[in-house]
Amino acid sequence: MRIEHIREVLGTPYYEADGCALYNMDCLTAMRDLPVEVVDLTVTSPPYNIGKEYDKDWPLPDYLDWCIQWIRELYRITRSEGAFWLNLGYLSMPGRAKAIPIPYLLWNRIPFFLIQEIVWHYGAGVAGRKFFSPRNEKFLWYVKDQDSYTFNLDDVRDPNVKYPNQKKNGKIKVNRIGKNPADVWQFPKVTSGTKRAAKERTPHPAQFPISVIERIVKSSSHPGDVVLDPFMGSGTTAVVALSLGRQVVGFEIRRDYCELAAQRLSDYLTIRKEREAQAQLFPNMNT
Ligand SMILES: C[S@@+](CC[C@H](N)C(=O)[O-])C[C@H]1O[C@@H](n2cnc3c(N)ncnc32)[C@H](O)[C@@H]1O
């Protein structure tokens, strides 16, 4: 229901499908128009202001002020039991730091409650000569209400348990579904290049890996919830959320990226339809 409400306020999306609305617009403008508490979960990575093709190259104080503005607006439109997962990298501060984690500059200026910092460790990247080779990014898990928030641990347990039959007082000690995946996550980056490009690779220069977003969406939302990515890029959050039965809203300021995301969603929905049609034709195929 809430996604229809969002459509009523923002008008016809750039792309829409059942349970999904993508808008080619500035997310701050869009969020300012939305009513309170319409979103359950936000998963996003905004521009880092480091000279990427979609960056604006703001003076640092202006960039931080802008981050605070959109995060405050996001807080207003997030439901009371909702969550906000923020992927933010590093920027250089001449004379102060080669690479300072951007959340250090924001943490006490935003209204959300920080539950945890997750370290996303990936296998490959540039090799440092005068410093350790960078191999991680952070995801900050924020909630609105520190006493009441969604956490579906069983949906994301790691089945790869070393001693599954370990007992304590005669009882199996380990959870049968698997262990808590802990706060350091190993997932490869979406690789590029003619020979080693990942299957999920799109032309977007800063694409999230599907596997990371799956863990976040499963753990922090329920089927039917509204998931938002205000900096949608190639639409990874949208594709994952839709595939997990959530409703999806996305904002992207650039038309070419919006088109990329729309195409990705439309391709996903076509494949899903074909699979459903096959399953109807051959209902016992997997038995
Ligand atoms: C780091 S990328 C996100 C990539 C995305 N996570 C993915 O998987 O492809 C940030 C995106 O935010 C978009 N963007 C920048 N400013 C914006 C704004 N004010 N409103 C909406 N989108 C914006 C950029 O064009 C860029 O595509």
Give the CATH superfamily: Vaccinia Virus protein VP39
Structural class: alpha/beta
CATH architecture label: 3-Layer(aba) Sandwich
- Please, how many domains? 1
Poorly predicted regions are: none
| Strand arrangement, major sheet | 1-2-13-12-3-4-8-7-11
Report Rg.
20 Å
Summed over residues and divided by their number, the pLDDT gives a mean of 93
Query: What is the H-and-E element order?
Result: HEEHEHEEEEEEEEHEHEH
How many beta-strand elements?
A: 13
Inertia-based shape: globular
- What is the CATH fold-level name? Rossmann fold
Labels describing this entry:
about 290 residues; alpha/beta; Rossmann fold; nine-stranded mixed beta sheet; 6 helices; 13 strands
